[in-house]
Amino acid sequence: MSRYFAEAVSVHVSSQRRASTLDPVLRQAGGVLVMHDGRAVVANYGSAAGELAACVSAVGVADRSDLAILELAGPAVQLRHLSQRLAGSDLAPGGAVRNGGAWWCAVSPERMLVLCEARRADRLHSVLRARVARRSALTLTDRSSELAALAVVGRHSSALLAELGVYGESRNPRDVPPLTAHTATGSEVLWLLESDDKALALTAAADAPAVWHAIERAGRRFGLCAVGQDALARYGLIRRISSPL
Fold first, then answer.
1. How far is residue 32's CA from residue 43's CA, in Å, rounded to a whole number?
2. How far is CA 144 from CA 9, 64, 115, 209, in A?
């Protein structure tokens, strides 16, 4: 893993918009920025309806700077105990589970990333900070400004990820763990495979433009479209209605 997945430098969740290396890419694509839960995000790229249609029939790529990315690190035994209590699961490296409105992702026995929407970040951070305070060997770090999150979502998501090589030679998503590492154009990427039609790419913020363009190039044959928060929210609602719990 790169140093972005290995160093602990802070214990503060920031809701402030920072200039991002991905901003020029988003502006060039026609992104319309709005404030959402205290953060500036792309609402759409000119047509939320068209972007939703792309997710339904093809595939979309989206900036997920609205997500908070927290890191827990420390001795494997203590981290495993904390995972069992808060994530409700004993995660092996490469494992990932959604619980309590957050994704809990085991990068290694000594490192875990926790992803949630910004509106949940402060509360989650407070819970984690209280738990970590009882275990002096564990550290809690906000990685939101160091890591970029890009979503691939829609009907042809699996086909696109296979084209990118995320699933390896078999091109079968069942052959890789839910959290799998893959190199794209020389950039290290952690892929969180949330479902058959949704995945999240985590990479160093500086590498985000290269990863975006790699996804864009591979996605052309599948009708890839840049999508904003409006389309993502509507697509998520459609999926919940069509696949009720």
1. 6
2. 12, 10, 9, 16
- By percentage, how much of the chain surpasses pLDDT 90? 72
Cβ atoms of 80 and 72 within 8 Å: the answer is: no
Average pLDDT over residues 210-230: 96
Hey, which residues does 63 pair with through a beta bridge?
A: 150
The amino acid present at 65, given as its one-letter code, is: S
Residue type, 244: P
* Lookup: tokens for 77: 């035994």
Do residues 229 and 149 make contact, with C-beta atoms less than 8 angstroms apart? no
Q: Where are the extended beta strands (E) located within the chain?
A: 32-36, 39-44, 59-63, 67-73, 96-99, 102-108, 111-117, 139-142, 147-153, 179-184, 187-195, 198-204, 224-226
Q: At what angle do helices 208-219 and 157-164 cross, to 10 degrees?
A: 110
C-alpha 140, offset from chain centre: 18
Long-range contacts (CB closer than 8 Å, 24 or more residues apart) made by 206-209 = 206/21, 207/148, 208/20, 208/21, 208/22, 208/25, 208/148, 208/150, 209/21, 209/22, 209/24, 209/25
- 10 or 28, higher pLDDT: 28
Q: Give one DSSP letter per residue of 82-135, joined into a string.
A: HHHHHTSS-PPTT-EEEETTEEEEEEETTEEEEEEEHHHHHHHHHHHHHHHHT-
Does pLDDT of 207 surpass 90?
Answer: yes
Query: Could you tell me which of 38, 22, 118, 137 has the C-alpha nearest to residue 70?
Result: 118
Full-model pTM: 0.88
Q: How far apart are CA 93 and CA 70, in angstroms?
A: 17
